[in-house]
Amino acid sequence: MRLSRREFSKLGAMGLAAQVLPSASSEAQDANRKVGYCVIGLGRIANHFIGGVQGSSTSQITGLVSGHRDKAEKFAARLGVPKSSIYSYEDMDRMRDNKSIDAVYVALPNSMHAEYTIRSAKAGKHVLCEKPMSTSVSDAEAMIAACKAANVKLMIAYRLHYEPTNLRAIELIRQGALGKVQVIESANGFYENLGEWRLNKAMSGGGPMLDVGIYSLNATRYLTGEEPESFTASVSTIDHDGRFDTVEENTTWTTKFPSGALASCCTTYGANMRSYYRVYGSKGWLEVGSFGYEGLRLQANYSSGGRGTPATVLDEPNTEPDPKQFTRQADHFTECILQNKTPKTPGEEGLRDMQYMQQIYKAAGVVAL
Amino acid sequence: MRLSRREFSKLGAMGLAAQVLPSASSEAQDANRKVGYCVIGLGRIANHFIGGVQGSSTSQITGLVSGHRDKAEKFAARLGVPKSSIYSYEDMDRMRDNKSIDAVYVALPNSMHAEYTIRSAKAGKHVLCEKPMSTSVSDAEAMIAACKAANVKLMIAYRLHYEPTNLRAIELIRQGALGKVQVIESANGFYENLGEWRLNKAMSGGGPMLDVGIYSLNATRYLTGEEPESFTASVSTIDHDGRFDTVEENTTWTTKFPSGALASCCTTYGANMRSYYRVYGSKGWLEVGSFGYEGLRLQANYSSGGRGTPATVLDEPNTEPDPKQFTRQADHFTECILQNKTPKTPGEEGLRDMQYMQQIYKAAGVVAL
């Protein structure tokens, strides 16, 4: 919707301008300026994101939120962020008045996603939130509602939706290169150590399903282009060494899609598991052998011309180094902000995975999320 | 139990000799002679078996059962089997009087396993029966009962229980090289063509689960050394091209073992699927990349000395050509016959898989087997 200046003024007088404005501040209208991000939480993944934004021509880091002022000041000095744009968790709501901050990147433990997304929205900032979106379906719904009420955009950081190897896999499937998708296998998991926040359900919301299994779950959805019809699942805990007092250790599940395509997936915190997906279609298969930040590689072998047609064999490594995926992700959200578009992975995408993970737990006899 | 000649005569007078005799005919007592096998059904797998027996120093082919006399006579000429030892399906019960036949190898479509196992048992022959053991749990039970009643041995042809690469995988797991087994992934499937007997439920008993999925099911049992506690499963049929009018196309399932180890498995007749298993333990992983007749290969990577210990990396191809697996399998059954031992994979092993497959179908909402 485009409004004339006069129409807009009228809406302003009616108190409705905010509802048609594409973004929180009218500065976002200037498609040539850089969008400023405030990073909330300066942990490991925040470093990847910051590196990604540094490689972007449309985004920049303009604010930091941390519980450690010293640490934040070091980041600020390196990134050229003024000290006045460093906030604590307590006073971050003040960023409402900071015009250099258009959006926040929520890189906190899962249980804090909802609170900081909602507070950021109330401060008038667009929100890019890490996955899993939250630790409960109701929190995810509240996050969407808060961003809608504040008229800010909400994107969940599903970086692989913007990553060329995954986009190539999706393209091959949509083109019918593999024929009809029959079965997808996927795994993602790692050995987690005692003391890590992921093993504390109050912070993580659950076991490996939320942190890494979500990659397999989400991949089966974008690969098929379908929404799951049903799930079956098993969960277990084998090690009683203090690590799994509050979250489960292993989960295996099956997904059935409306087309009949099935997925067979597993995740764990008890073993270093290979991360990959492999799609079997009636005419051949493809595999992407990592959900990582770099080193992705698509391999495929199919005869889409029918029986007897020589096989097409693909082996396409993605040589883009980390943090290029984060640049692509930030660029997308920035574009959405500047051009008033809905992100490819909005809050609703995160909510769906929360609902599906709830169903997977339920299928395994566990009440969660 | 050893009996003196006098004690044995007494039992014979009481009609009980058959119950203490280790085998159907007293000739089997001679540990130096070759055990004679009659092959029932001269299809693809029978050729592998015959090749395997030809490579054995303790077994030989001494009879044939076929519906095609011409075909059987060609086989007989090649194998040195007298024409008098060729039977039709109708008259095969006459082999009771053929002393050169100690055992049969049942290589028929699944639905015929029960009838020909039971008839062979009644003819006083030991039975080596292909897997799946039958097309119903009750048939499997009847087969075991018939062999017991006739005092003949029954072995199900789980050839991988006798195959070095699989034995090596089991050994590594039992030694604790991988630590505690957390999750096993396994797949096995292929694109099946219209008109094949496997797609006719009356002959096959069901879809890919019975023919190839059974490898994954059985492997997760011998790898963990445990019996499944529960299953979850999904089945689907995507292609409505006449192939799947009576059997399902795809199955994915999860298995939970008492230790907490989980398995994530899939099978299909709708796609050429890689056949493999991969075991993830707390200290590393191993993979065997085929359930085939040859070309098996064990790969592994583990640090069983604990964290920081250099990883042990294994890459051990099995270079034994087909039909060596069949030689090993025949040798085992022959040894059991000659030495009056219970096979490693007796009827009860086949029955268990039938019961588990029934549970997998039930978990998917299908009444079968």
TrEMBL record, chains A, B:
Instruction: Report residue spans for region: Disordered.
Output: 304-325
InterPro entries hit by this protein: Gfo/Idh/MocA-like_OxRdtase_N (IPR000683), Gfo/Idh/MocA_domain (IPR050984), GFO_IDH_MocA-like_dom (IPR055170), Glc-Fru_OxRdtase_bac (IPR008354), NAD(P)-bd_dom_sf (IPR036291), TAT_signal (IPR006311)
One Pfam family for this entry, by name? GFO_IDH_MocA
The record ties this protein, via PROSITE patterns, to:
TAT (PS51318)
Print the keywords alphabetically. Answer: Oxidoreductase
Q: Where are the annotated coiled coils located?
A: none
Occurrences of domain Gfo/Idh/MocA-like oxidoreductase N-terminal (ranges): 37-158
Q: Which domain of life is it from?
A: Bacteria
Q: Does the keyword Oxidoreductase apply?
A: yes
Q: Write one Gene Ontology MF term.
A: oxidoreductase activity
User: Which residues does the UniProt record annotate as the domain GFO/IDH/MocA-like oxidoreductase?
Assistant: 168-287
By sequence similarity, the record places it as follows: Belongs to the Gfo/Idh/MocA family.
Annotated protein name in UniProt: Gfo/Idh/MocA family oxidoreductase
